[in-house]
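Supplementary Note 3. Input sequence used for the single-chain structure prediction.
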Amino acid sequence: MSETAAETKVVSLYQSSKKIYPKSVSGRFAQLRVAMVLMTQLLFYGLAWLPWNDRQAVLFDLVNRKFYIFGWVFWPQDILYLTFILIVSAYSLFFVTAIAGRVFCGYACPQTVYTEVFMWVEKWFEGDRASRMRLDAAPLSINKLWRKGGKHTVWVLIALWTGFTFVGYFTPIHTLVHEVLAFSTGPWETFWILFYAFATWGNAGFMREQVCKYMCPYARFQSVMFDRDTLIVSYDTERGEPRGGRKKGVDPKSASLGACVDCSLCVQVCPTGIDIRNGLQYECIGCSACIDVCDTVMDKMNYPRGLVRYSTENALEQHWGLAEIRKHLVRPRILLYFAVLVTLVAGLVAALVLRNPLKVDVIRDRRVLAREVEGRYIENIYRLNVMNTREQSQRFSVSVEGLPGATINRGSTVDAEGASTVAQIVAVRVPIDTAKPGSHTIHFTISADAEASMSVREKAAFLVPK
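The predicted structure, written as discrete structure tokens, is reproduced below.
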């Protein structure tokens, strides 16, 4: 073997991740996270059971192609509303991010929420950070087996309940309960319950910070929405450095030290394992755990709080107070986002308020273009697809105009059940001598007998043969 070959080294581009053991923390931001977890999960798990008009309040019935959201019933033709909702959600995220960074990730993101829930269960069975590290390092024993087994059992139960609830928004949840208890769920229902449960168990139990750091695209493009006046979790380097240990009550200046005691607790409580003292990093999800634990240390040392705090880059450099920070939050970017967001929300609300609950499609019967009947009329046949998006049954009257003497010989009334579509055959007659040969424009008016606001006017073509 040549000397060059002997000196060849293999360099791996893959770095295996180390398991992170976040330490529990208490404080105002920790309490806010708990409140957000409870609120979001109460909404997710509870909304599926909320009744409304003898049905589920929120149900996406894909089989019948109807989306029920409280008092509204949406159909595939209402895709515009979904588009509006998605755009409003995106701009809301941009707006919040430009003001306060990744605060959504730290408090309301499903990955963060379920990781928090799974960590509560982990703490109940295995203890806090030091106990978990000792348990993982210990050899297999009865104690380790029941603690690990108990933790995963509860994790799986939570994950299965989450998957069941998710599918319950697409299959009526009361029906789904009976199907699950009878082991008669369909293949797709079974697949999605198990798939969603597996994703919850895997993401919240094992992958955790890996999802935030490597899988979530938001972590990669968030910096585009940041500027030097965006509120972020910040370490006050000027006040904290040089860091170093000292006894309680020692004046930092007398020891030629900064306020940071180098306890590393800010690193131990971080769910993504970063050191906030190294400055802003894309892995930071803005959960503020480091703020809570640092404030606790500052209290014990009789130092002012705020060594780690919500601040902006400009505020840290120019020593701004809270009033100056608030003043600089209102800036052109924020005003632009706010204006666009208000416009979109106003447009969505207006569209929902002005939404006509009646939809009609008029289709000419191409099998019979036009025919002479009774020796004195020209008759055209049409098919009216009447969509009643109200949940109450309605009777509709059909009238026609556009040609002299035009009348409806058949199909002048339509009965439609609530949230249903009815196909109605309508025959329109015109006296032979009242219209020249060719195509003529007519208009159908379909109106609800009990609700004058439910009215639609549709155009159609009437053919007179030569």
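Residues 227-320 form one domain. The chain has a mean pLDDT of 90.
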